[in-house]
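pinging the channel bc i need a second pair of eyes. not urgent but kinda urgent?? the chain im working w is below, pasted from the shared doc
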Amino acid sequence: MLKRIIEKIEARGSWKTALLLFLISAALASLIISQAGGLLAIDARYTMDAADYYTAETFHDNLENLGESGRQTYLFIHLIDYVYIAFSYPFFAVMVYLVSRNLKNYQRYRWFLLLPLGAGVFDLLENIGIDLAIIVWPAKLPLIPFLSGYFTTLKMAILYCVFSLIACLGAYRLIRAAMKAGKILLGGEESD
């Protein structure tokens, strides 16, 4: 199954696909960050999605501090976030493919394409946990806040690795292209 996912990313991975996924992700992120253009009101200090980690106590305190309308708004924002997840993590997977596909040992590193999708799974699990806790509020689910904190940490750790991978491989490709262009300009032979 994972091999098929990798093959689909490779088959559909193009700069055109990346641009489309990026534009959709950016529009959705703008909606979330701007709280739907100011139509929604929520104190972002008490949301957990952008944190690196939080404890079960912080989780419950944040939900309490949001108040009833804040918790309902959080649920609505998560509806947008679920769509964002469906576009942004595939964008990162396509970007990893685009910057790594010409590596000499690419076949050995193909599984890196799954890293962004793994972060997406943890983001999805984090959102589901937060949403379940909001739905049953004021009852407190004992395991959900604990797990959601770890899902958030894993999501962010994987995303940091993905960003670093894209940046390093992108820089490598630019340097290689500049070196090739320099050789050609100086009359040298083009080699790989």
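so Residues 2-185 form one domain. and The two ends are 34 Å apart (CA to CA). — does that match what u expected or am i reading it wrong
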